[in-house]
Design a protein that fits this description.
27% helix, five-stranded mixed beta sheet, 2 domains, homodimer, 288 residues, alpha/beta, 12 strands
């Protein structure tokens, strides 16, 4: 029963031998194996182990209904984008991280409605289509949108100044697979730095900024749900996203428009900013 | 800026390049590397990733001033005993896990005093000596003791029936390096199963029991602090400790004694149980 550095792992692996669900067993044994490898390599002191316990506990304590510090930790370690990459499907638009702010339901909105309830930012019209990988238009698909305001804050971060649901909208594509809505140009922003993940970034001299982006989840039966962003092409930090989520195919121009006819169509004043983002969904079963 | 499964890790590693403290940099990059390897191997779905986030958050939320669920998680994965093994010093008594219940200060007690304030268990006298690796007796060393009662509960787990400090004592060895105290024989017990770690054990059909033991931290200037247990030799689960902490050298007989002279010396009634545990501390600087 005397364990050395390697037989301890063997005993732990063996302890999971009766796990009935094979995937659970695989997950537990794989995580144990990698965790032991990391500890054997790092050879932490007791103090370092206690610091690690304290850090993880603080991450848990910082998480609540409107803040998810473990998602943030996953994000800044590149785990979230790795999971997206693994689950990506080359037949559809590239995915990227969910982020920690998709925690309240987006209000259902009519096509063309504004998701901005503040009226203080740069007006913007976003249009796009949802199609299958084969180009077939997908009417009735849901397009869940959420973004920060022009100061870089999501509604849940500023409940005193933003009504719940500001910057959020759940749209449904028309019969031609089109969606369109009004908003304001989002700002780049720092991820929340007032928690343990902020301390981690500070200790490693990493900046906490994300380039400006609008979050999208597109979903319709028979296709894989897509979680992605449209990134604002000329945003600061477009080349050094704190959460490693930028993909070239997701970078979208937001040019200024003075097109009066289009302004009338969408009910905005000129000048306004204009973005177009087409979404291709991969089928649930990949084509042969 | 387009990351695949491997370049994501490169970008994360590179993001830590300016970390001023070399050890912090080593810890962050090593953990990131092993975490990415685990994720690449497991290829989690989004749902599984969300379950992992939810599990870690629940572990954090379960932790408070009197409960440390992350320590428990470290324990059941064998990480705690691995850290002990790595930090062990062959010149001294073997160490083992701290466990999650060393969270309140042990009350200072006189040699011979009882740490049991309930009077309902099997009386027991524990004696021992603290020496250096070379056998020199260490007077004035602190011996911090904590244990559960005869029902398997620590004071912090049963604040309504156990006074704070029951089962705990901070002793100081006499000029001959000796310590002795009265207590009751501790019981084997399940680690707390009403949290996420309990769910993990249930999902893997692992029992939650630890064999009966008394915790010890021995400390004196010039020597490495020792965190260990004395295990009760005839305890159930001595061969399948849920936290992998048993070492043969730490298993101690607790025989029954009817020695009236000794009973008088220690102020107990016969019959009583008797245990002896000698502690050798390794010097802070290993001898050449």
């Amino acid at each position: 029963m005397d364990f050395d550095e390697h037989t301890t792992l063997e005993a732990v692996m063996d302890s999971f031998r009766n796990t009935p669900d094979p995937r659970t067993k695989q997950i537990l044994t794989t995580l144990a194996r990698h965790a032991h490898a990391a500890v054997r390599e790092l050879r932490p002191t007791h103090d370092e182990w206690e610091q690690a316990i304290g850090f993880l506990t603080a991450v848990g304590h910082k998480s609540d209904d409107t803040r998810q510090e473990f998602v943030l930790l996953s994000d800044v370690l590149g785990i979230s984008t790795l999971v997206e990459t693994i689950n990506g499907d080359a037949h559809g638009t590239e995915g990227t991280v969910l982020g920690p702010f998709h925690m309240v339901e987006s209000p259902e909105r009519e096509l063309g409605e504004s998701i901005d309830q503040l009226g203080t930012g740069t007006p913007c019209v976003v249009t796009g289509t949802v199609t299958g990988a084969d180009g077939v238009v997908l009417g009735g698909a849901t397009v869940d949108i959420w973004q920060c305001d022009e100061n870089g804050f999501y509604d849940v971060q500023r409940p005193e100044t933003q009504p719940r649901g500001n910057g959020r909208g759940l749209f449904r594509t028309d019969e031609n697979g089109r969606f369109w809505f009004r908003t304001v140009v989002p700002s780049h922003y720092p991820i929340p730095t007032d928690g343990p993940v902020g301390e981690l970034l500070a200790a490693s001299r990493r900046h906490p900024y994300r380039p400006a982006h609008i979050h999208v989840i597109a979903e319709t039966p028979g296709y894989k749900t897509l979680t992605t962003h449209m990134f604002v092409a000329d945003s600061p930090y477009i080349d050094s996203d704190a959460v490693f989520a930028v993909k070239e195919s997701l970078v979208v121009d937001f040019p200024e428009s003075r097109d009066q006819a289009e302004a009338d169509d969408y009910g905005v004043e000129i000048p306004f900013r204009r973005a177009h983002f087409d979404i291709r969904l991969a089928p649930e079963e990949a084509p042969e």
